[in-house]
Amino acid sequence: MNIDGKPYRTIFPDPDGESVQVIDQTRLPFAFELKRLATLDDAAVAIRTMIVRGAPLIGVTAAYGLALAMRADPSADGIDRAAATLAATRPTAINLRWALERVAANLRQIEPHERFVRAFAEAGRIAEEDVASCRAIGAHGSRLIADLHRAKGRPITVLTHCNAGWLATVDWGTALAPIYAAHEAGVPVRVLVDETRPRNQGAALTAFELNGHGVPHTVISDNAGGHLMQHGQVDLCIVGSDRTTASGDVCNKIGTYLKALAARDTGVPFYAALPFSTIDWTLHDGVKEIPIEERDGREVTHLTGRLPDGGFATVEVVSPGSPVANPAFDVTPARLVTGLITERGVCEATPEGLLGLYPERRAAA
Q1: Which stretches of the chain are assigned E, i.e. beta strand?
Q2: Identified catalytic residue from 235, 242, 249, 330
Q3: What does the mean pLDDT of the chain come to?
Q4: pTM over cut 0.85
Q5: Strand 339-342 relative to strand 345-347, pairing
Q6: Has 194 been annotated as catalytic?
Q7: Domain residues for 6?
Q8: Total count of domains within the chain
Q9: Per the count of CB atoms within 10 A, which of 67, 102, 106, 345 is most buried?
Q10: What are the pLDDT digits (tens) for 134-161?
């Protein structure tokens, strides 16, 4: 996707061939900066501190992090230590574990002196697959928007939550990919962007993306979505997913469940968009089984913003001394999900719906 007319991906190999560059998402939307990752620790810190974020991008960054670790220690123990370090950074997004297992399995089949080059190449393949998956998600999901436009005969308003655009993936995005594809095809579409407290990924990142690509949008407070659905101002909800169970339960940024409840009550279709790497075929009850990351309470108690003079300040917004809880995700049960938009098409959020798109999983089901 483009920044000031120049195409960028969120992660890409550095010209030195021994490191990668990432967009520092903690600096957005007010500053666009690249950060070089050259070591295992660089990659782990980038994931943990949300320099990179979004389930697919976390997976790709972890793959590159494991490759970078092979420069320092390509032994079998080195593989295990690096994978454990990266796996511990964030517990909810399944893409991270999936990418680590894929790269590690590849490395154990070859000699240590070959492991850095092989791992770096494998991480690159994972990145390219993510781009292709997201592009396909966009194509399949844009048909839903186009069909609604034809049926209603007016511009379509989509509500989304958090950031599931190209900044959450390598390119294109998941929940935003259908919107980009529809917009490029000339379908009139507008986006309602939840601010998505406490880190404001909607207001800061989704709005930044949509601004850059000329997609009409309006930022709303997190609690406005239900009201707007009640008054017929939302045609469709599309969110991303950090982990989707084999039964169709969807784990996404905290607050997604409340949007799904409001959508069900008001008859608004509610879809989750995700690539194959986000499906955890080992889990069937998302509420009971998906680990929910608990993040630092300071994300709730403090806000950082730009001052009128262009400087930045962090301010406290919660009564001093009050205890704070900060669960980063929640789970939307499959019964509230109209459908899942994947790189293979759109299906019902049911075991049979998923197996219809991924029949190769039937033997393991």
Answers
A1: 2-3, 6-7, 11-13, 20-23, 34-37, 156-160, 189-194, 217-220, 236-239, 243-245, 250-253, 270-273, 279-280, 302-306, 312-316, 329-332, 339-342, 345-347
A2: 242
A3: 96
A4: yes
A5: antiparallel
A6: no
A7: 2-129
A8: 2
A9: 67
A10: 999 999 999 999 999 999 999 999 999 9
